[in-house]
């Protein structure tokens, strides 16, 4: 079974330090930077189809079968596209964290 993860959780999944390790202001700045990068990745680095499926799945809480029906595509296409979108996001977040 696939576990759903919210986009907010993605912000924290790569490179976000424990709030107890740094002062609160540094953590806020890091979170703002990560959110900005995440927004840029979604807007400029994903295909239109990846964005559409990602937003339906995470923001509108649609299931993969619901998305497939809405878009007139097979459920496996939804799953594959969502997986590629996540991988693209992860790759770009890792890249930006190294800078």
The profile of the biggest β sheet is:
none
Rounded to the nearest angstrom, the distance between the terminal CA atoms is 35 Å
User: Which superfamily, in CATH terms, is the homologous superfamily?
Assistant: Winged helix-like DNA-binding domain superfamily/Winged helix DNA-binding domain
CATH hierarchy: architecture = Orthogonal Bundle
Kindly provide the radius of gyration, computed on alpha-carbon positions and rounded to a whole number of angstroms: 15 Å
List the helices and strands in order. HHHHH
- What count of helical segments does DSSP give? 5
Q: What is the structural class?
A: mainly alpha
Domain module count? 1
Brief summary:
The protein contains 5 helices and no strands. The protein is mostly helical.
What does this protein structure show overall?
With 99 residues, the protein is an all-alpha fold. It has a single domain (7-11, 24-98), classed as Orthogonal Bundle (Arc Repressor Mutant, subunit A), CATH 1.10.10. Helices cover 72% and strands 0% of the residues. It contains five helices and no strands. It has helices at 7-13, 24-44, 48-58, 64-71, 75-98. Helix 2 (24-44) crosses helix 5 (75-98) and helix 3 packs across helix 5. The termini are far apart. The relative contact order is 0.15.
């Amino acid at each position: 079974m696939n576990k759903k993860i919210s986009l907010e959780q993605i912000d924290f999944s790569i490179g976000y330090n424990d709030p107890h390790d740094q002062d609160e202001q540094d953590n806020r700045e890091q979170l703002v930077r990560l959110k900005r990068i995440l927004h840029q990745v979604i807007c400029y680095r994903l295909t239109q189809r990846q964005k559409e499926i990602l937003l339906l799945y995470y923001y509108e809480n649609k299931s993969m079968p619901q998305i497939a029906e809405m878009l007139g595509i097979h459920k496996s296409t939804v799953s594959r596209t969502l997986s590629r979108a996540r991988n693209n996001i992860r790759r770009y977040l890792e890249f930006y964290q190294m800078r």
